[in-house]
């Protein structure tokens, strides 16, 4: 970091005359509609007598950016190997390491590779009857797994099968996307500051703050690890598109890049609509503040719409996309904008009143269109998300099982304060504060009016809006912390704030080294720390299921465990972690009665209705201690059923004592009626597997015709 600061300071001094020449050249060419000549990748290079410097900077910056991206890729791959000793464990252990929904997504990649042909594999995904028992669903419609389909096809056609295992091809692809991510951050910072050294600093910060910028090394196949790199590319493309005096042909090229990156982002993550909604609100705000032209606003909105509609087609007309808030908002914003003329005219008070009315009209029309669309489409797939949001801010029922599942997870809680301590440890947080403060001070010093480039304004609002989202929901922090790196680097290395920054921070070599050394030491310690995957109970369970149960056997249990059972054994499931379906959520709540206070007869009836042959009970859930009282799974079930919770503590007055013991505990007594309806067939320290007795068929056989 010290090296970057010193070199940038030298370059800023050496290029003073060059910057002056470039400024005058921009002024001379601006009247002719020429490109101003910023150092931009993507072939947006300026003509002129200093082309040798431009070429040198682009070549050097590109080399540094690619090198940092590859370094990040190798870094996370090394952490993954060192944490699990992935290269030396059995295949079943490798697959078990894909925890929760990660295992579900990877199972479809494995399923495609096992299919006799690509056509047969696609047919099995479109007519899937193993993910949800007694149902045939279209996986390509329900889930965002086109990346698994693409990788499986690519693995089949490339001549790599002899020296690269399928699982390595998969994880290396995900790690390679981190290269794309870092390069995108590099480009964004370069475009903002006109200095590739800012890009280098953003890449270094991203790597040093890995704990808060990514979790790819232990959640490889999570949808966000596929999509966020494309989102970063989209932000880089938008930053380029909003640069002043960009040539029309360059604008069209960049818009295509915006469309392609937005499409890839939407195709790979089911929560794309909510992220794009935040981005649409940013565009709307910039439009209201007169930072963007009408053409820019309409173009960016349309890129979002076209991307979502193309994904809608590829996902077999998934109604969740048509009923999304972002589509309703964009339609409303464009409609009101078209008819409400003279919005940005008049005095300050009149303009504020017009903008307030404009915003009110857009929001009213948005909710009207969205409500109507959901009624027409009978859409309930995403209602659990809105239940969670309402309950989180105190507007919804706190006993709703689906909302409580999210509310009780740490990932969906508020952003912990120790996040800022870690960011401050790499001086990233300080730099963000100094950037904002110094930028404002420099503007006030130059003149008393507020001026900001559109690309800078977009990235500032991007940081603010997604920062608020991260504060409210910790899982969304990865959309914010990654973007903090290029924006903070822009403030540090941007020539307009550089001299003031040095005075504010009183920067010197010793100070910078004292800040940079601890993160570097932590990075080296992480790389040198060696662990090994160890989960013998789960391995034993998977091996028993694979060897001792029929291939079409149906298993019931927790969502997280069943995803692993599908991946490791290929057995049929009653439920799974992909929660974006109302019928599945209801089925999950019913299956989870195995951890509630219900009679043996009622549980048996529920399990038979979903076609279960076996149930897997986990002691870690039945006797859970990870969550506090009120957030344990058994507590959520008791509250949803109107029962008093376990243990000491207060209960709401309308709750009543349950008339039956907790099923997961009582079944272990092996006493009637449990022994009449269930037979234990497997047990270890963690899991208990019971087989359901089909009493109805048995009684019919005994009674005879």
TrEMBL record:
Q: Which family does it belong to?
A: Belongs to the dpy-19 family.
Q: What is this protein called?
A: Dpy-19 like C-mannosyltransferase 3
Which InterPro entries does its entry note?
Dpy-19/Dpy-19-like
Query: Source taxonomy lineage?
Result: Eukaryota, Metazoa, Chordata, Craniata, Vertebrata
A molecular function annotated in GO for this UniProt entry is: mannosyltransferase activity
The keyword Methyltransferase is assigned to this record: no
Q: Keyword annotations for this protein? A: Glycosyltransferase, Membrane, Transferase, Transmembrane, Transmembrane helix
Quick one: where is this thing mainly located?
membrane
Task: Classify the protein's membrane topology as the record does.
Answer: Multi-pass membrane protein
- The question of whether Iron-sulfur is a record keyword is answered with no
**What organism is listed for this UniProt entry?**
Cyprinus carpio
Q: Where in the cell is it found?
A: Membrane
Assigned GO CC terms: nuclear inner membrane
Residue ranges crossing the lipid bilayer per the database entry: 50-77, 167-192, 226-242, 254-286, 306-336, 348-369, 456-474
